[in-house]
Amino acid sequence: MALAPYASDPARSRGRRHPEAPAPTRTEFQRDRDRIVHSTAFRRLVYKTQVFLNHEGDLFRTRLTHSLEVAQLARSIARPLGLNEDLVEAIALAHDLGHTPFGHAGQDALDDCMREHGGFEHNLQSLRVVDELEERYPGFNGLNLSFETREGILKHCSRANAQRLEAQEPGGVAHRFLARTQPSLEAQLCNLADEIAYNAHDIDDGVRSQLLSLEQLTSVPLFEHHRQETLREFPDLQGRRVLYEAIRRMLSEQVYDVIAATREHLHQAQPVDADAARRAGPLVDFSPAMRERSTQLKQFLLRNLYRHPQVMEMTGAAKQVVRELFDAYMDEPARMPPDFARREHTARAVADYIAGMTDRFAGREHERLTGRRALA
């Protein structure tokens, strides 16, 4: 399928930090995707969790399955809009590479530990993984991805970190946070697909865990509309089939809404190329009505799932694991592998090491160092 004028064209990529000869059979963005899939950090995502920790059940989403779902949703939206599907897939598969073990609980704990050392941002860590921490090639650190993929990975960035990155790479991937422009349309799309994916699968995982019930979900307009529609069409349907069908229809409506709303925004803005789209403000979005219903769903999940006493109890234990690991390595860096222990900046080395851990490795390492099992 031909790309739209405002799509990111791999032939016009802003290139890689370390120049490389082009691949004979792949575009630059296809090459990025392949490097991400073969990376160590990508494989680790299978044992890093979303809401439920890895040992709590085999069927809950992990960072890996979440990333695959984001990629699928993003490609489904990219194609009818004429955007670059390969770039969308690369960004989606890489967007969580820097996430800590134990989901947002681990991130919050590590950020708190790093407060006096520059803090911790998982989007910035994802960029750090692909720019520095992966060790696969003889000529450079990291994966040496294209500018456009790196730009999409850096979804959020504090002003202080943006200024630091801009000093290192003038006009680079952090410049937009200072100039107040947008990333590519493909990156905007991945941000929204991420939101759509986790809202839907957190409903599924919440019901599977029995922390949420179908009765509770009747208060969520976006879900309840599709549950009722499902039962009108299939009045004898029961149990998980009702849940799955309602979620499937909810996802489809959101996908079609994004396509229609974005087409309208593009029609109004008339961007002539990818850079014009960056200057035009946010263009990939829900319609106002769908944005309101999506917000209602997020608020419901916050109240009833993310702040559920059982989740909060496990969140507290996970934060304790991260804090105690951080303290142990700071007190005695030699407890880390030599590549981390001998680095000049100990706190950042500790953060890199902990952020790269899977849930189960972090739990085992904590038990080894403290003699206590914090996660039952």
UniProtKB/TrEMBL annotation:
InterPro entries annotated for this entry? dGTPase, dGTPase-like, dNTPase_2, HD/PDEase_dom, HD_domain, HDIG_dom, PHydrolase_assoc_dom
Instruction: Report domain HD positions.
Output: 63-199
Question: Which Gene3D superfamilies does the UniProt entry name for this protein?
Answer: Hypothetical protein af1432
The superkingdom of the source organism is Bacteria
Would the keyword rRNA-binding turn up in this protein's UniProt record?
A: no
> Positions of the region Disordered?
1-32
Q: Does the keyword Iron apply?
A: no
Q: Which residues cross the membrane?
A: none
User: What PROSITE patterns is this protein classified in?
Assistant: HD
What keywords tag this UniProt record?
Answer: Hydrolase
Q: Which family does it belong to?
A: Belongs to the dGTPase family. Type 2 subfamily.
Protein name, per record: Deoxyguanosinetriphosphate triphosphohydrolase-like protein
Organism the protein comes from: Ramlibacter aquaticus
